[in-house]
Amino acid sequence: MEHLYERAVFGGDAAALDEADRRLDAMEADLCMKRGRVAHARFVAGEGESPDELPLFERALELYRRLGHVRGQGEARFWIGCFQQVVRGETGSEELTRSLELARRAGDELTASYALRHLGIAEHHAGNLPQARELLEESVRLRRSLGFLPGVAANLVGLAYITAAEGGDPAKILDEATDLASTSGADAITRQIEEARSHLQG
């Protein structure tokens, strides 16, 4: 950044200022995303809703849109939808659907897997089990291809609940989830699996 300042002030290159603004916008957007995710993790850990979380993601979206950064827009929209769903108890489906579209356009399979997961959760809560299964299974497929084992385990918990609701036996699904969570050190997911096993299998 210093060289852009010097180009503008000492070299008289006004275009350097536009480049400086773009780089600063990108840095700010990335920082907003990181701070927003920390705020969300604090909520998940039981610390309550942060008044900063949603504004941080919204600011990131604004900046990514200004930069024409499609991948960033997809990620920011996911976290806005996730906030709506997880923190506020809404569906978040509109933002999640848009996130999935943008992630697919950008080739961002990780964000796509997150959007698919939470769209699946929304369908599950609405009682649409076939749609929920389809979305979660697509998320699992992406996460397996990425080697994202904790994410696969988390999705298998959801699929276990869907399987039980459809009248099936979730035991094998939960066993695989346990193995994956243990292998990847995902202790929080292991606790979710134990809760699901207790609830679904008595």
Properties at a glance:
202 residues, mainly alpha, 10 helices
Structural class: mainly alpha
Strand runs, count:
0
H/E element sequence: HHHHHHHHHH
Q: What is the residue-mean pLDDT, rounded to a whole number? A: 93
CA-atom Rg in angstroms: 20 Å
Percent helix: over 70%
Distance between the termini: 60 Å
Number of DSSP helices? 10
Major sheet size, sense and barrel closure: none
The global form is elongated
Q: What share of residues are in beta strands?
A: under 5%
Low-pLDDT stretches are none
What's the quick description here?
This protein is mostly helical and 202 residues long. It is 83% helix and 0% strand. It has helices at 2-9, 15-47, 53-67, 70-87, 93-106, 109-125, 129-146, 149-165, 171-183, 187-201.
Q: Can you walk through the features of this model?
A:
By secondary structure, this protein is an all-alpha fold. Helices cover about 85% and strands about 0% of the residues. Helix 2 packs parallel to helix 4 (about 70-85). The model has no long low-confidence stretch (mean pLDDT about 95).
